[in-house]
């Protein structure tokens, strides 16, 4: 007997992954963990796009997935540079201790 995952299974998995990402962003103070949580949320959205693309036999979801992956790659470059600069200046990656933008 072969079990085939339906659209609902993919959407539930995507919702769980997105929720884990949101919880990581809201509850953690480490910039790197927050950064990884954002990546989890982006991948959850990609999973949803691919699931709907497969379900509807439409290539639009796959195109949007490539766009999200491009944004994630840009975010990786800029985000890691910001985290490294923050660590060099403050010797910490705790976001509560960063107050450089406060007036």
Which features characterize this protein?
0% strand, 103 residues, 3 helices
Question: What's the short story on this structure?
Answer:
The chain is an all-alpha fold.
Structural description of this entry:
The chain is mainly α and 103 residues long. Helices cover 76% and strands 0% of the residues. The protein is elongated.
Draw up the topology in text:
Blueprint: H1 7-27, H2 31-56, H3 60-90
Helix pairs in contact: 1-2, 2-3
Topology order in helix (H) and strand (E) letters = HHH
**Cα separation of the termini:** 64 Å
What class would the helix/strand composition place it in?
Answer: mainly alpha
The amount of beta strand, in percent, is: under 5%
Number of strands: 0
Outline: elongated
Rg, Å, rounded: 17 Å
